[in-house]
């Protein structure tokens, strides 16, 4: 196969994920030559504003997608949860490797669980999805934004800026920092972001040679689950900045999807589940069911508040 160029963000986690994917590809294609191009995204540059206020959609992928379209790179490795519901024409997700732990976890200065955190504790998260679900369980807690890479956020907590922070377990696992986790939050406590724990290998739709090679690292069970979650997100025309959550599991031939839309203050959570054989239909139908229960109006109010 021709030599390839892979694009990635510069963060330690992004680099770790990309190198893992390249190693998996090389196991299947031992003669493969891959060089790496680091790309700075808008989400990496703007660190003093919450994700929801800087536009949300595509914050961590837009510049990388442009490099793909310009043919500066051949493929890119993204965290699936950073991918907007829609992507530019001419690009596709060529492979989705097996999913890491999809759940969120709590890291605390004093080793507490979520239930044990003292009243009024300050929790750091820039995710409206996490904030909504956290305050629904513990309305007594205070929530403030925390930005930066995993190491930066962890250090801010250790330095006393926060009593606790919420992070994706997958990132900590990939960085081999699992010992930092004090409380892994179940899907019942905190439904994950769409695609959380999964990676998206993105490439040009007409690159048949590369698409064929990528099949060696694709996991169809993860692919089906993620497609259901993304169909749910696409119906709301949302991105990772909105208080939308979804988690799917493949059980036999069926896909079981749970989805949620929340009010950022946690006072209203609209949640439901649906099971079916066609993942795209399951995602769309569940989103339509939640819309009938008021999810559309809730998200419109959130969007208006962010713009305002």
From TrEMBL:
Annotated InterPro entries: HemC (IPR000860), Porphobilin_deaminase_N (IPR022417), Porphobilinogen_deaminase_C (IPR022418), Porphobilinogen_deaminase_C_sf (IPR036803)
Top EC category: transferase
GO cellular component, one term: cytoplasm
Modified residues annotated as S-(dipyrrolylmethanemethyl)cysteine in this record: 240
EC number: 2.5.1.61
Superkingdom assignment: Bacteria
GO terms (BP aspect): protoporphyrinogen IX biosynthetic process
Assembly and oligomerization: Monomer.
Function: Tetrapolymerization of the monopyrrole PBG into the hydroxymethylbilane pre-uroporphyrinogen in several discrete steps.
Other information: The porphobilinogen subunits are added to the dipyrromethane group.
Protein name per its UniProtKB record: Porphobilinogen deaminase
């Amino acid at each position: 196969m021709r030599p390839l160029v892979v694009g990635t963000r510069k963060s330690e986690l992004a680099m770790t994920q990309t190198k893992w994917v390249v190693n998996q590809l090389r196991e299947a294609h031992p003669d493969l030559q891959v060089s790496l191009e680091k790309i700075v995204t808008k989400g990496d540059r703007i660190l003093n504003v919450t994700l929801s206020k800087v536009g949300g959609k595509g914050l961590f992928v837009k510049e990388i997608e442009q490099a793909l379209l310009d043919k500066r790179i051949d493929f890119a490795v993204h965290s699936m949860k950073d991918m907007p519901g829609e992507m530019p024409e001419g690009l596709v997700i060529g492979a989705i490797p097996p999913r890491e732990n999809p759940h969120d976890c709590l890291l605390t200065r004093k080793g507490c669980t979520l239930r044990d955190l003292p009243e009024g504790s300050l929790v750091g998260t820039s995710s409206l999805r996490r904030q909504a679900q956290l305050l629904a369980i513990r309305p007594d807690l205070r929530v403030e934004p925390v930005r930066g890479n995993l190491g930066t956020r962890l250090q801010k907590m250790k330095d006393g800026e926060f009593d606790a922070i919420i992070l994706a377990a997958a990132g900590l696992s990939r960085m081999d920092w699992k010992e930092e986790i004090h409380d892994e939050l179940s899907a019942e406590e905190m439904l994950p972001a769409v695609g959380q724990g999964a990676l998206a290998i993105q490439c040009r739709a007409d690159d048949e040679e590369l698409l064929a090679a990528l099949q060696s690292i694709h996991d169809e069970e993860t692919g089906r689950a993620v497609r259901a979650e993304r169909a749910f997100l696409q119906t709301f025309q949302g991105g990772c900045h909105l208080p939308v959550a979804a988690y799917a599991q493949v059980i036999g031939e069926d896909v079981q999807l749970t989805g949620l839309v929340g009010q950022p203050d946690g006072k209203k959570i609209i949640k439901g589940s649906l099971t079916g054989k066609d993942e795209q239909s399951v995602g769309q139908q569940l989103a339509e069911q939640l819309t009938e229960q008021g999810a559309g109006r809730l998200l419109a109010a959130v969007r208006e508040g962010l713009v305002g």
